[in-house]
Amino acid sequence: VKRDAENQATLQGAKFNILDENKNVVDTITTDENGVAVSKDLPVGTYYYKETEAPDNVVMDEAEHEFILTENNQVVQKTVVNDLQEGKLKIIKVDALTGDALKIDGIKFNIYDANTNEFIMEVMTDDNGEIIIDNLSKGSYKIKEIDNQEIPGYEINEKEIYFEITGEEEIITVEFPNNPVLGALKVLKVNEDGNSLAGVTFG
Q1: Which of 29, 65, 71, 61 is closest to 47 using CA atoms?
Q2: Alpha-carbon dihedral sign for residues 150, 154, 155, 157
Q3: Mean of the pLDDT values across residues 21-31?
Q4: Environment class of 148 (CB within 10 Å of its CB; exposed 0-12, middle 13-18, buried 19+)
Q5: What pTM was estimated for this model as a whole?
C-alpha cells in the first residue's frame, strides 16, 4: 500500500521492482487507484522490493526493503510512505526604486494556490522585513500583500507575484517591492500686494 507522509492519502502510479535474494528482478508492479500493488505468486524465500518510479509531488524511496515468504499462499503486506516534495520560500520587502531592504516587521501577505486560487496561509514579515516558510509543498503559488500600514511613506503593492516550488531548489527567494510615496515642492513668490512674481530664482 502506497501513501504520502502528510495526509496518508493513497498514491497511484508508483512502480516497484521485486528482487530475489540474488537481487535479480523477478517482478515489476504498479500501484492502482487505491494505492495497492500485488505481485505474482512467488516461491518461498527471501525477497526485496524497491521503488523505481514515484508519483508526482512525492520523494521516491530509493531503499531496498526485505520481506520473507515462509509458507505456501502466504501474503505479506507492506505499507510504503513517501515524503512530499517540498521547498523553502523566502520573501524580502524592498524599496522599488533603490532595491534596499525594508526592515519592517508586521507586513502581512496571503499565499494562494496559483491554479485554483485557494487560500493557503497568511504570513507576516519579521524584524528584517523577511518571511521564511519551510516545507511548502511542490506547486505553483501566488503571493499578495494585504496590509503595509507599518511602512510609512510607501504605497501598498497590489500586484500578485507568482512563484513555483519544484522541490529541487534549496530555497526560493521572492523580492516584493513597494514604491515610495513621492511629492514635490511648489514655491509661490508674491510681492507686498500679494501679486505673484515671475522669474525669481532660488539658490
Answers
A1: 65
A2: negative
A3: 95
A4: buried
A5: 0.58
Query: Whole-angstrom Cα distance, residue 81 to residue 35?
Result: 11
Distance in angstroms (rounded) separating the CA atoms of residues 136 and 199: 62
Question: Is 64 or 149 the better-scoring residue by pLDDT?
Answer: 64
Tell which wins on pLDDT, 49 or 195. Answer: 49
* Sequence-distant contacts of 45-48: CB under 8 A, at least 24 apart: 45/20, 45/21, 45/69, 46/20, 46/21, 47/18, 47/19, 47/20, 47/21, 48/18, 48/19, 48/21, 48/23
Total residues found in the chain within this entry: 203
